[in-house]
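Chapter review: from sequence to fold.
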Amino acid sequence: MKTVLISGATGLVGGILAQRLTEKGYEVRILSRKKSANHFIWDLKEKKIEDSAFENLDAIIHLAGAPVSKKWSESYKEVIYKSRVDSSKLLFEYVKKLNVDLKTFVTASGINYYGTLTSDKIFTETDPPSTDFFGKVCVDWENAAFDFESLGTRVCSVRTSVVLSTQGGMLKELLPITKLNLLSPLGTGKQILPWIHVDDLVNMYIYLLENKKLSGAFNAAAPQIVTQKEFTKIWAQSLHKKVILPHVPSFALKLIFGEMASILLKGSAISSKKIQKSGFTFQYNDLKNALKDLLERNQ
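The token string follows.
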């Protein structure tokens, strides 16, 4: 039986991942603020983790990170950064200190690695990182993960796009306003909205965990490329609604969300060819089918 330690397991993706791994026969350990049967205490402020979480440990999947959907004040930017980068460094310190024979470290990352911008380019894993705020966060986040290679650990980073699920994230927020016919495209609507079905993302984590020959960065985005306007239309049609309101102007979103509005108003296409060429198959590579599946589960 392989033993996997998961941070962020109380979140949307982490919760499903922990359940799937348990069903596959893994011993799953969860980093948490509260102690329970398979939960181990960690405290980022105190820089402490229960040593017992690392006993006979095979792999770590690091998903922890503060939500980016809140307004980015300077203090909250620090929270976003520390919850990702400092937590990765803390895990590294414990693995090194306890001399853990860790086989695999898989970390979440974001497609914002390439920058929050709208362009005609389709970004691949070999493209250089951005120097904007979240680009720098992703770079430091991944660098902290790849430090594990110095310990002989295989490392993978998952550059994640918008995760589709009616149980959390964007779709959960859109459901009530769509039912009230209050849905409208954001800004110009021409920006690309990279997306991935939550099941495909969970399957990708398991795939990277189990394929020992794979390492490095992998984009987690469905092959189908859609604009924000196209996404809005398909989503509305899935609920048998129409988009009847005008676009939400960019200035209004900037007034409400500040700098965070950039991730709503901008977006470029992301290639998933690398993970596909390695043998991974997307179960949901068409947006209409992905939304149909998620909405049927929500009934």
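Two observations follow directly from the output. The first helix runs from residue 12 to 23. Residues 3-298 form a domain with the Rossmann fold fold (CATH 3.40.50.720).
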